[in-house]
């Protein structure tokens, strides 16, 4: 897939090329159409055959008509466009609803993903040669674990030389148990040491930790260059979700980490693109993807500023037809010029 390769080789991760992106999307769509019977059946049913795939429509018009796959379908049906021996890696979603997606990644998509992480990580100054201690607010890895959240959290500990990793969720008696007591003791011990500390993982557990420390009257002045990296949603803790201002206030009060050192990520196993907060705490769409906000009833694209379902598009993956996926997330799209960063 030469157009995919060229797309992920672009030097600046936020310099957009509509022409190259469209070529990569058409290339990816045609590949899945020819190699995945289920995907071909979906496209044919929606009157999006080879002629439509290869059509020369403008990018916005093309993407608006490109059929999407609901993530809910991917949680119930496995679809692959490559034979098992050509799938380099499989990753699964968290499966909090009882079902989970299983997405295959070819070697080419893994190489593209590595290039993306290196470029976006460098752009946002996530890499450092200074060793760090990591507190992972997520699952401790288990043998043969394929959960994307586990792999992503572990991967984020490679942004710097890692001195140690402490995990809040440990597997015991058939389930994961949060260890707030152990994490609080670890945080207190790190205050007296010189190396920065990086938190990485679920915002819910990070917030619950901060709230518990506040309840106990504990505050810790962590070493300079300490950061909080947040990835993943609130899911089963949706009712307890804190707004950004509350979260930032607690982080400053309890850990002396200000909001300039709090960075949030957004992504999904069905859409493995790295969306990263800017200094104004907005997500920006990188060169490797596009986002359409769709009306929940008609699925028509909505204009800037409107709330709707989030449709994510990337030509990164060849092993599974996740070119265009429809999430069950609600979002709002704005013009990049409104941010100010």
Structure in a nutshell:
This protein is α/β, with parallel strands linked by helices and 341 residues long. Helix content is 33%, strand content 23%.
What does this structure look like?
The structure is a single chain. Helix content is 33%, strand content 23%. Helix 10 links the parallel strand 7 (197-201) and strand 8 (227-231). The chain has helices at 2-8, 18-35, 37-45, 50-53, 59-65, 71-74, 107-123, 148-156, 180-190, 203-215, 244-255; strands spanning 69-70, 89-92, 102-105, 132-139, 162-172, 175-178, 197-201, 227-231, 262-268, 271-276, 290-294, 307-313, 324-332. It starts with a helix and ends in a 9-residue tail after the last strand. The model has no long low-confidence stretch (mean pLDDT 91). By secondary structure, it is α/β, with parallel strands linked by helices. The strands form three sheets. A seven-stranded mixed β-sheet has the order 6-5-4-7-8-9-10. A four-stranded mixed β-sheet has the order 1-13-12-11.
Element layout with pairings:
Blueprint: H1 2-8, H2 18-35, H3 37-45, H4 50-53, H5 59-65, E1 69-70, H6 71-74, E2 89-92, E3 102-105, H7 107-123, E4 132-139, H8 148-156, E5 162-172, E6 175-178, H9 180-190, E7 197-201, H10 203-215, E8 227-231, H11 244-255, E9 262-268, E10 271-276, E11 290-294, E12 307-313, E13 324-332
Pick out its properties.
341 residues; alpha/beta; 7-stranded mixed beta sheet; 11 helices; 13 strands; globular
Radius of gyration: 21 Å
Largest sheet: 7 strands, mixed
Q: Which structural category fits the helices and strands? A: alpha/beta
**Uncertain stretches:** none
- Which whole number gives the mean pLDDT? 91
Oligomer: single chain
Order of helices and strands: HHHHHEHEEHEHEEHEHEHEEEEE
- The total beta strand count reads 13
Helix fraction, binned, reads: 25-40%
Question: DSSP strand (E) fraction?
Answer: 15-25%
**What is the number of helices?**
11
